[in-house]
């Protein structure tokens, strides 16, 4: 029903003079590309759109039919308008039944971290893996691992952020492993930053652990036990990713939940205040002040760098602890998605996302050779309370225990396979749009 309504809206839009001209232009453009395609029947996929001119960002360029598989993926209507790329916000939609199920399992993918390996850990329900994200008004084709790797030939991509970034990269690795098993070529001491290489495609994939993206002194072990307030330098970027930045052609970067932690803030090496540290004579500063400074510094650095890069800027990811927080007995035992409108974003998520959207809009103006794309997964993730490990972050958590025994729940990360797999469909869709 909603789809029908949207189609009608599109038709009305077509009558609008301005839009009509745009469609005509696109049709002509497609025709030109079609002829070009016939002249150069190269099988390799050209992906030169990393360098775009700072023109009209509102309208993504039409999908070049550069490869027959693209045609299968994006059926082109006889109007000449490729579906899935125009006049559609791929981040607004609903979760729909997917009988096909996930593209990998705990058996086919051997790189799933234990805490997210819900199948292996004995999660009893399986309904949560039979959903896919469906934007209103357009088709979102499923991620094509082969096509992605062809795009990434001779390229390097990095996921930069916290453990949610690691969660995402694992999902990507599992899907890509159907085409080629990556070789791990690097990991740091704590196994939080890693690098893989896909030999047949000369493609390097990295995940870089930098939860604040800024220079930060963190006094916390791997289990989250803290022995002192985090010291955050609001005017200095984290060298762990900055030093490697020029190696990357694509990055997926994000901030998030770490900014809610107790931290002492420094600017120009001077203590300016802190967030919930309750120290005498230290000014309390809201986390969103630090968050805005961080996001602004990061996007500013990327956009002004001489090194040109295609950047996905991911918005914050919501958690689904109910009846408590992560450390006060909160849990997430729902077994199906919400419909939109059934759940509201929490204040902290809304605050973070608002900062992200505002800073993204500002940074977009600085685009000069690099590409900046908003990867706005907050709302679609909010609809999936069923996709978290919950108690199944641990192996068979209730073995030998009462079903109501108190165990640690994880309602922030995502089961693999799980809803986060859809993020790759979205990523592919944006890549194809250029
Ligand atoms: C393409 O065609 C299908 C059916 O032929 C229609 O449902 C859909 O709305 C069309 N899409 C666009 C973007 O025109
Ligand atoms: C995958 O999970 C199932 C339970 O769903 C388990 O029986 C199987 O041993 C697991 N496979 C691996 C390789 O861990
Ligand atoms: C990848 O690099 C090799 C060696 O430099 C080159 O021969 C090949 O054409 C490149 N392929 C693409 C798709 O850029
Ligand atoms: C691999 O890609 C790099 C660029 O990232 C290029 O310099 C190199 O020549 C490529 N190697 C091969 C064997 O294609
Ligand atoms: C940073 O602090 C130094 C002295 O510690 C001062 O000279 C400099 O002007 C300050 N820079 C800014 C931008 O405030
Ligand atoms: C806080 O400031 C007051 C007044 O300046 C001072 O007397 C007190 O010693 C300070 N406390 C600490 C812990 O620095
Ligand atoms: C755009 O980037 C080029 C190359 O890095 C640089 O020379 C130029 O000054 C930049 N323009 C602006 C307005 O920043
Ligand atoms: C979730 O857990 C609560 C508290 O243990 C229980 O009341 C509720 O029935 C559970 N819901 C589901 C869907 O299992």
From TrEMBL:
Pfam families: PC-Esterase (PF13839), PMR5N (PF14416). The keyword Transmembrane applies. The chain crosses the membrane at residues 20-40. Its main location: membrane. GO terms for molecular function: O-acetyltransferase activity. Residues 87-139 form the Trichome birefringence-like N-terminal domain. GO terms for cellular component: membrane. It is found in: Membrane. It is a single-pass membrane protein. Keywords: Membrane, Signal-anchor, Transmembrane, Transmembrane helix. Residues 140-429 form the Trichome birefringence-like C-terminal domain. Coiled coil: none annotated. Signal peptide: none annotated. The keyword Transmembrane applies. Belongs to the PC-esterase family. TBL subfamily. This is PMR5 domain, PC-Esterase, protein trichome birefringence-like 25/26. It comes from Helianthus annuus.
